[in-house]
Amino acid sequence: MQRLNPWGLGIAAVGVFLLLRELDVLPDVSVGSLIVLGIGLWLLAGAFSRRHGWLVGLGVTAAGIVMVLRNLEVIDPDFSLWPIVLIVLGLAIVLGSGMPPHEGDRS
Fold it and tell me: Does 63 fall in a domain?
């Protein structure tokens, strides 16, 4: 059985989203917000398979969710993402400094 190509599925999903948005079936959400959300979910899924690096994926996913909620006007459109970015970056540095080095890393 042939394995499905994730890139093809992603492109088709974006096309379906854009078509539904043009037909006014879906609310007007920016594609950029969905791309950030998709990248975050992709990083998160990859981190769980490697069992490390999940914090960055979680942060990018959270930023994507906030961006989508801003587009839908569920939260204030003037809400700033910078505090979330700084919190995630700081936690990634703190928690990453206590992790053992990767097998290929030499220090």
Answer: yes
